[in-house]
Amino acid sequence: MTTFAIATLGCKVNTYESQHYLESMKESGYTEVSFREAADVYIINTCCVTNTAAAKSRQKIHQARKQNPQAIIALIGCYAQTASADALAALQADVIIGAGEKGTLAQRITQALQQRPIQAEAPGDARALRVFEPLNIHSFSHQSRAFLKVQDGCNQFCSYCIIPYARGSERSIDPTEAVAIASQMAAHGHQEIVLSGIHTGRYGRERGTSLLELLKELTAHTPAHVRYRISSIEMNEIDDALIAFMQEEERIARHLHIPIQAADDDVLKAMNRPYDTAWFMKRMNEIRKALPAVSISTDMIVGFPGESEEQFSMALQRVENDLRFSFIHCFPYSKRAGTVAATMPMQIENSVKKERVKALSALSQKLHHSYMETFIHRTVDVVVETKKEGLLFGHSSEYLPVYIRCDAARAPKRVSARVSGFHRDGLLAEEMEESS
């Protein structure tokens, strides 16, 4: 019995890809064990979006080597793609796969086991990739929610971001393949499918289609119980037609995660973001008018080169008084070699970044509590994910964390529940009826 273990860092796209690696390894006759155990093969699905993520990728390799010095080490993903040849050589991985040929991982591992010692080579240029690699999967084990990777790559080149170099150009899954994978997921009992990508909102542009057309195909050709969630989408990719479709199609989750990255026009310009705060706010108001209860969350980077205390203070005020996101994923700016921002003057001290993260995170908690409060005495549709403290736990269409009092003998996958108040980090609700 040859064992393997997988460690996954980074985004939802990596989560999807790791599920493919898991399935392909099992299909090839390998047995999965925990990454904390001794294994014959360790697969590290890496991330490089920040220095911390890159460091964690390297730490996982050292952990694997310590647990079994004789193990095959497979390094795959964004850090494997962007690290220098010298850095990769120092890690002494047996298999290195970057942005392309991820579907060959199991085969490459088998070859490494048979041919060692083997000299792994650094990946080629990701920007040369033009064809989407679907990496089909059947389900996410023991989960009500599943991820479906529909898009890869990015052409935007924000000044702080390494991802276009790590993932390559934009490319999308064939809609027929997407429907087939989603149908398999539905057949395995998944109640929600999260459409994921590096730049999900630009799905299909190189194919002459769009994310809206994909959503129409998915809702038309998959079982009615499946709810679809857009993992992340840029504001300039949300047109009136998409909002109109969300108004009429309840199977699209009432949650849009729209990264603003900064709430100051000068910082946005330096970031090479394609909008200003006034236009972003205008579009937010239009979306909320069409979908009054919609959750709009965001990503924000603090401590970008040149961001002054005054700019940050004003940004906090705009977020609190005008933008009022339902919650904020807050990140300190991370200097990435090879990006435009890395060469900019007036780099911010880490201590300042930490203070700004603390301030913005506190505001996010305040806004999240305020948004959740509007759902007290209302009914929410919850996809159940687990049990906590004798209560069911899951997320509503608006991505609200909800704890539900329910008959302990039952284990529904989906519940309609009436919110009565707060509980821990979310809402407390009473089951009304099982939705499916």
TrEMBL record:
Annotated CDD domains: Radical_SAM
PROSITE patterns reported in the protein's UniProt record: MTTASE_N, MTTASE_RADICAL, RADICAL_SAM
Domain Radical SAM core span(s) in chain numbering: 140-370
Iron among keywords: yes
Classification via SMART domains: Elp3
The encoding gene: mtaB
Gene3D superfamilies with a match to the protein in the record: Methylthiotransferase, N-terminal domain, tm_1862 like domain
UniProt KW keywords: 4Fe-4S, Iron, Iron-sulfur, Metal-binding, S-adenosyl-L-methionine, Transferase
UniProt name for this protein: tRNA (N(6)-L-threonylcarbamoyladenosine(37)-C(2))-methylthiotransferase MtaB
Domain MTTase N-terminal: 2-114
Needed cofactors: [4Fe-4S] cluster
